[in-house]
Amino acid sequence: MTQAYLQPSADELGVYDFECNVNEKFFGLTNFILGYHEHIVEIIEPESLIEHIRRHIGKINF
């Protein structure tokens, strides 16, 4: 389902941009990001998503 929202990056070969509308609580997106974190280089925006992911990462027990 995410393929429709993936576009090759204009800046870097082999890098893809993911852009879509999401719900304000980031349901589903959080699991997607954390499940594929080794493939994510940078979350650019919105700042609320960046903070949301930071909070979730902080809850992980090592």
UniProtKB/TrEMBL annotation:
Protein name: WYL domain-containing protein
Organism: Flectobacillus longus
